[in-house]
Amino acid sequence: MPYWITPPSLLAAINITISRTATLLLLLACSASINADTLLKPYQAIYGTKLGGISAEMEQTLNKEAAGHWQLRSYASLLFASVEEQASFTEADNQLTPLSYRYNNKLSSKRNSELVFDPKQKTAVDRLHSKKPLTLPDNSYDKLSFQIQLQLDLLKDPEFSQRTYHLVERKKLKNYQVKLLGEETLNTALGKFSTIKLEQRRPGKDKYTLMWLAKDWNYFLLRVVRIDEGEQEYQIDLKQAELDGRKIQGQ
To answer: Please, which domain of life does this record's source organism belong to (predicted)?
Structure first.
């Protein structure tokens, strides 16, 4: 999760946070009764945050490239700095298979990443940091495809309470637990929403992330709050979004 001090790191923070958070993330169609091939819907969203008087925005889009193939892209910019993430994956029967992931920070190249997944061998390698592939357990994703898989899991499992996900981050494989905390009514700039509240954290770590997703809008991600040592580190809010051409709006 982000550790921002300067504007460039602030941009990276927004991108990394939205990517990791459990819901990060995100606009998916419907109810459990809908056919599997209609669960994913293209969307466009803009998120914003402010820290120490500095404001920044992140744009995120999900597009269908071909039958079963999707691309998720996030882009943040501030002044002369920018951060971009892009992931490609396939979907079948509500299960994603990551294919590639790229992270590009022009002012902090050490954070850059270029992951290539081999679904048959169940491995992934970051071409910028290692030549040795990581062996992956089931339920392994990059930071962007993870958020979409989480969304699918929420949609297809009304009894979702807690689940563990494995995320490939450069040369490492990290485990994250996502837990349902309950339901809340959330007031936002877009209106009032009925939401579910999730907690995401790595076992043994003090830092964790809270997420609020709109129940009546297919668990669309509305807010992300990062907690560090019991104190709020930052907050990210949805500013505007369209799901399959339909504008997101609360009551």
So the answer is: Bacteria
Paired with 201 in beta bridges are 177, 208
Q: Please tell me whether residue 106 adopts helix, strand or coil conformation.
A: coil
Judge whether 70 and 90 are in contact, CB under 8 Å.
yes
Label residue 30 by pLDDT band (50, 70, 90).
very low
Query: Among residues 10, 164, 35, which one has the least CA distance to residue 92?
Result: 35
How many angstroms separate the Cα of 199 from the Cα of each of 48, 74, 207, 227?
A: 20, 22, 11, 10
C-alpha of 132 from chain center: 26
- In the predicted structure, residue 35 carries a pLDDT above the cut 60: no
Burial class (CB within 10 angstroms; exposed 0-12, middle 13-18, buried 19+) of 79: exposed
Please give the helix or strand (H or E) that residue 158 lies within, else none. Answer: none
The answer to whether 96 and 84 have CB atoms below 8 angstroms apart is no
User: In which residue are the tokens 């009551």 written?
Assistant: 251
How far apart are the C-alpha atoms of 178 and 158, rounded to whole Å? 15
Report the candidate in 151, 88, 75 with the shortest Cα–Cα distance to residue 115.
Answer: 88
Token couple for 13: 């923070």
Task: Give dist(CA 231, CA 147) in Å, integer.
Answer: 25
Q: Per-residue DSSP letters for 213-224?
A: EEGGGTTEEEEE
> What is the chain's length?
251
